[in-house]
Amino acid sequence: MPDQHYEQILATQLAMNRQTWVVLQQRGVTEHSQLRLDFSYNAPNKDAAESLVALIQEQTDYDVRVESSGSFLRRKWRVEGTTQQTSVSPEILDQWVTWMVTAGKERVCDFDGWGTPV
User: Fold this and answer.
1) Is the pLDDT of residue 10 over 90?
2) What SS3 string covers the chain?
3) pTM: predicted TM-score of the whole model, two decimal places
4) Using CA atoms, how far apart are residues 69 and 76, in angstroms rounded to an integer?
5) Ordered domains of the chain (ranges, CATH)
6) Distances 104 to 43, 52, 100, 111 between C-alpha atoms, Å
7) In whole angstroms, what is the distance from residue 59 CA to residue 47 CA?
């Protein structure tokens, strides 16, 4: 995929971080709160998904797995996972999202976003 595609994903996710941080603060989250972040990627095929899982497992301590849905001809592949408990701030979230988008780009997978139960 062209770099522009991943630059757009990154720009969108960084903008969403700002909105999400405001909502988290409204729900009592501070820079001292410990959260587990759930995340997902869309993958073009099983090999790309498995390659991304291997990369994330090699470089982090996240719980991560490959998921699939749909029929044989319309199979969709996703990578889903959860971080360990961590402190977050707008700056930390931006650094983390940048790493996540870059990891996806290395394995031709699109970072689809993150969330956390509060």
Assistant:
1) yes
2) CCHHHHHHHHHHHHHHHHHHHHHHHHCCCCCCCEECCEEEEEECCHHHHHHHHHHHHHHCCCEEEEEEECCHHHCEEEEEEECCCEECCHHHHHHHHHHHHHHHHHCCCEEEEEECCC
3) 0.94
4) 5
5) 3-115 (3.30.70.970)
6) 9, 7, 6, 6
7) 18
